[in-house]
Design brief:
Blueprint lengths: L1 H16 L4 E7 L7 H21 L5 E4 L6 H5 L6 E6 L1 H11 L1 H9 L12 E3 L10 E5 H10 L4 H16 L34 H10 L14 H5 L14 H8 L14
Parallel strand pairs: 1-2, 1-3, 3-5
Antiparallel strand pairs: 4-5
Helix pairs in contact: 2-7, 4-5, 6-7
The chain binds zinc ion (ZN).
Zinc ion (ZN) binds next to helix 7.
């Protein structure tokens, strides 16, 4: 009894002093289609880009590449300030997610995750309101490359953007300009609370592609050309909440953390 009590106190102290606050990128190579080294290199570059984007949002959340085989045991060790971002060929990603969260994997195939013609769907991430959890981000490389080409960035930068966008869905956020339905900080039903209008990190991918292809808003933004980077640096990513608009930054802080991060699972340096 006493030992258990001391162990509980030590565990509480440990979790208090070392917030995990980590997004683990899980490279998913399809042995028939991918070179594992290529997927691994991309995962590393995407993690770096995503970490830079989170810093731009004023957040301390870190992004690291997971080392080893990400199985149900690893998934069980994620704490509430973590997410796992699966990155690879569509089928390899769905298979890897199915190992740890079968219902999430099913919801991804149902949502046409990875579609790379017609409606491009590079990213699918859990939003807690859907009931399958809130800690999976999934990127399909084929469609991520199509998205990145359309917005004129390298695939690592496109992936780094989509990881943070997906983390926003994990944080109970809908797309820019939409009713969020819930207050992402209190969790209360809140139909008149909106996600700030584009440009910001929660802008729908199709909207981003159309804006960058058309450059229709460059003049209004007083820039020569609108870029993907501007959806990260837009001030409304960091704005405080108002009666009408939620705070994207506060939603991330609530879902992840605002403590110095420390990965608890094995990661690559
Ligand atoms: Zn989205």
């Amino acid at each position: 009894m006493r030992q258990a009590f001391i162990a509980a106190i030590l565990a509480a102290l440990a979790s208090r002093s070392f917030a995990s606050n980590t997004i683990y990128v899980v490279p998913c190579a399809d042995p028939a289609k991918d070179k594992p080294a290529v997927v691994a290199a991309l995962a590393k570059a995407a993690a770096k880009a995503a970490a830079g984007n989170l810093g731009e949002l004023g957040l301390k959340t870190q992004v690291k590449v997971f080392k080893g085989r990400f199985d149900a045991l690893s998934y069980g060790k994620l704490d509430k300030s973590d997410s796992a971002a699966f990155l690879g060929s569509r089928d390899a990603v769905v298979a890897a997610v199915a190992l740890v969260n079968a219902r999430a994997a099913k919801s991804m195939t149902g949502a046409n995750f990875g579609s790379n013609s017609g409606s491009i769907n590079p990213e699918h991430s859990l939003n807690p309101r859907d009931g399958y959890g809130d800690n999976i981000i999934a990127l399909s490389l084929g469609a991520t490359k199509t998205f990145s080409d359309a917005v004129k960035v390298k695939v690592a930068e496109g992936a780094g953007f989509l990881i943070v966008h997906g983390a926003g869905h994990n944080a109970n956020l809908q797309h820019a300009g939409g009713s969020n339905g819930f207050d992402p900080v209190t969790g209360a039903y809140s139909p008149n609370l909106y996600v700030p209008h584009t440009p910001n990190i929660m802008t729908d991918g199709g909207v981003i592609v159309r804006r960058i292809e058309s450059q229709a808003f460059a003049k209004e933004l007083k820039v020569e050309r609108e870029t993907l980077r501007m959806f990260v640096t837009a001030p409304n990513n960091r704005a405080k909440a108002s009666a009408e608009y939620l705070s994207i930054q506060a939603a991330f802080v609530k879902r992840f953390d605002h403590e110095p991060p420390a990965a608890k699972l094995p990661v690559q340096e």
